[in-house]
Design goal:
- The complex is a heterodimer of chains A (734) and B (358).
- Chain A is of the alpha+beta class and 734 residues long.
- Chain A has 16 helices and 36 strands.
- In chain A, the strands form seven sheets. Chain A has an eight-stranded mixed beta sheet, sandwiched between helices. A six-stranded antiparallel beta barrel of chain A has the order 1-4-5-8-7-6.
- Chain B is of the alpha+beta class and 358 residues long.
- Chain B contains six helices and 20 strands.
- Chain B has two domains: 241 residues, Thrombin, subunit H; 77 residues, PDZ domain (Pdz3 Domain).
- Chain B starts with a helix and ends in a 12-residue tail after the last strand.
- In chain B, strand 19 and strand 20 form a beta hairpin.
- The chains are: A alpha+beta (734), B alpha+beta (358).
- At the A-B interface, helix 1, helix 3, helix 4, helix 5 and strand 1 of A face helix 2, helix 3, strand 8 and strand 17 of B.
Amino acid sequence: MISSRITNPTRKRGFFVLLADARARITSPKRERGFFVLRPSRVLAAGGWRRVSGLLCALIGIAAFAAPCTAFAAQSLAELEERAIQAAVAHVAPAVVKIETVGGLERVGQLLVGTGPTTGLVVDPEGLIISSAYNFIQRPDSILVTLADGTRLPAKLVATDHSRMLVLLSVHPSAPLAAAEAVPADQMHVGQWAIAVGRTLSADSPNVSVGIVSALDRVWGRAIQTDAKISPTNYGGPLVDISGRVFGLLVPLSPESSSTLAGVEWYDSGIGFAVPLSGVHSVLSRLAAGNDLYPGVLGIAMKAGDLMSQPAEIAVCRPHSPAAAAGLRAGDTITEINGKPVTRQAQFKQELNRHYAGDHVHLVVTRSGERREHDVELAEKIQPYEFPFAGLLPLRPLAGKPAELVVRFVYPDSPAAKAGIQAGDKVVTLAGQDVKSYEDAIERLKNREPGEKIAIGLEREGQPVTAEIELTRLPTDIPPELPAAHPPVETNGAEPAVGVIRLAAGDDASSGKDPAEEKGDEKSDDGGDKKKAVGDKPAAKGTLAYVPTAYKSDLRYGVVVWLHGSTPDKADELVARWRPLCDAHDLILVAPTAAVGGKWQTADVGKISEALDEVSKNYSVDPARVVIHGYEGGGALAYLFGFGHADTVRGVAAVGTPLPVWLSVPENDPANRLAIYSATAATDGLTVAVDAGLAKLRGMKYPVTAKKLGDEARYLSADELDELIRWIDTLDRF
Amino acid sequence: MIALVAVAWLAQFAAVRAAEVAPTGKGAASPSPGASAQATGIDAAQPKMVKIYGAGGFEGLEAYQSGFLISAEGHILTAWSYVLDTDYLTVMLADGRKLEAKLVGADPRLEIAVVKVEGQSLDHFDLARPAVADVGTRVWAVSNLFGVATGDEADSVQHGVVAAKTQLDARRGVYETPYHGPVYVLDCITNNPGAAGGALVNLKGELLGMLGKELRNSQNNIWLNYAVPLDQFATSVDDIIAGKAHAVADTPATPAMKDGQGIDLAERGVVLVPDVLERTPPYIEQVRPRTPAAEAGLKADDLVVFVGEHLVQSLQALAAEMKQLDSAGEVRLFVLRDQQLVDVVLPPAKDDAPDVKP
């Protein structure tokens, strides 16, 4: 019934659940129930349950003999807790409603949407009800609310909070409803009892799950974390404290993704989230007025690196963004946000992500040692960034030669062609700033967009030439032929292993491989190169790779990570296919195999990272031409890896597979250009999904090159593969 | 052992009577009730638990499950499953004794089975003394989940509360299992291999129910943790032990489908929208004049949301509901019109009605 992607977390975590008894503290009930005489928080703070219950029993023993406190005496602490929990549920129950829907989609992406009831919480006696956006992903035609007393009312969806994944519904009750009471933020503490309440399983009473507050300020400052079991049976319901006041609204959330489905895979796993109700109250009037709320966007990208250690230095300030409008610039370092000091990027993100579009944040930045203050109104979204293009392909430099940026190829009809720029010209300035390399050029262009005019300074046969060009967007057509990529190279000194090699990465995954891989298939290369191929008898262990036998460390090599389709390749066939291409185009092939039965899993990502790291460490790699290329399931993993490793991957080439719908695609990163190549046969069902994925990527302004492969599902032909190689050869265009 | 049971009995007695009766000096002096509430409940249950080993052992099908003694002579209640489908059934008692076991009988409707080992004076749960739990009642789930306990090692104990008591609608079959009766839904991850057949007990160690198999809730696709309440199987167990084949036909006959035809809404003057989507909402496209539908006040663009008490989420669901009803009877519909729920009773078409659709 359920989509196969959602694994059963309990199977993996079953053992850990046994340990969940480690809770030791309970909260101080603010409003004492009649039967609750002792304040357990004082006692319990001192130690574990058993110890405390022993102490309590001693007290009970005394009480039993000393006074006619009989009902109390016969109850154990556990029973008192049980009754407190039941009383808390009873306290909030009138505000917990059942929600049912009619019509709507049957599946969203690959997820089969459940048709069962979900939960909502009354937040205003006039009939305002908050629920989880997850409960409405199927976009129902009609919504019905059943109140705690059984009254059924039609409901309308008033507004959605896209930051905290909540929706506001309204009903028109005949009498005022019981609205839930919020726990003030300063009264929430880790370790307090936290009871998740839903109204989905039984008509008579709410369903409950008992845990504690595990953490506050989770998911970048937006949620409370609990170990109560949170799932579709209580999404939209409240997480309450021991006196029945509401900590927050239960929603699936994930720190990594902002999709409505994110976090659902964590159901019942010991980690669940609730959006604080006190915060919801503060935006209730905006929602009630029918305004959707969105996460606030500033429009900057931080310098790449570890979020937890890097200072919040702005690498890119997006044009037309609130940041740009407020006068922020690349190179500024943010030191304070809303009065909170920022020394690491994570601190900044934590505070910024609490805010909605329309909120103002006060920033203090340092620019060249000078302190500046900016007040910025956050936006709902910014036009996606689009890489600019001048129309040039650079000649690749050789190590040890003076750094210079020489034009290898001018794209026909490009701005550069129109300005009369020719192959062989040396680019010396862009927009008035010196450039000596491709990296410099990207640096000069990363804060610009198509349509902007820039000056370009050239040297042609020793004479300075200047031109003005209007940048356009990156081409997606692949040039039919290209001139040589680099000047001739002389031989040089010691070289690492070349030919067919095995990388240390992915050592564990090699068992059960095709015996064909055992064969050393490396023959002496036909180019007459004198170097010895080291990989003559490769061990079957480790990740297969091919390094051109004519490898020279003065040159920079592109890397193609090949992720096989449903049938893993035979090593010799794979090498036979790729060797001529790698030799001719300065490419290193890395070909990991799926760890489990030829099927890729997201866990294989780590292996690919390791293999790439190893290649980068041992060989001279051109960072502009690192491509991840996959067929079928391998293509899906290629997308996953590419979008997850924007700092290393420059191209994703997927054959016979659509962009996975569950993948959350990051915004175009001006500093890290990523291009997409997709080739698919027009087979049943696939075309629609592929086109939808590509349309999404184009909408996000990724440069997308799409090819159709006829009617039969297959991999690329030799000619098509040649073209793909040319696409890789152009990834350093600018 | 007997002492422990006595303590459990006393504790239970004390709690039941606590509201009205002051405990005697002896009761209050029994080992501190707070600490023992946990220890006693578990200690009372553990000697009655058994580990069952049978068929399985290949991928995805573990060859073990849990069970518990229900008679001094060695009757054991467990889940009816493939594990019992063998001539070589072994039971490990709590004290580590390994005994051959025989399948006495099963009730496939309840998915329970009784197996028996040779024994006497065995500590056991008394099915005649049912305990019940409410939502929020704290429980122990005692089972050999994942088969981690071997020999005389005690079963694993998980704690939780009763998350919900749900009376499942047998006709509509909310859960994908032969059993459609009431269950305790548990706030405790019990849906793991080997847990089926385990005991659900309250803090005093009184049996509340038997842990169910690994199932998903078909309404929202998530894994379900549940136990079948004791009162559901007590009679059936007696019958199995008495050698009476439990009548599977006990399942209440589907109450509906009285004449097997169901209600034809078109005949009563309701024209629904065409069914074009996977979940086409059941909108009324047109109400034919001078028909029961028109007289009952149904209107074009009404959205049918309930048939009686049953939510209908699509045209297909509406059609399925109609099939269950008596073709000559009236049907109560709730329709949504201008954000109002409207209650409509739709009578059958009169034979002499002039404008009835053929």
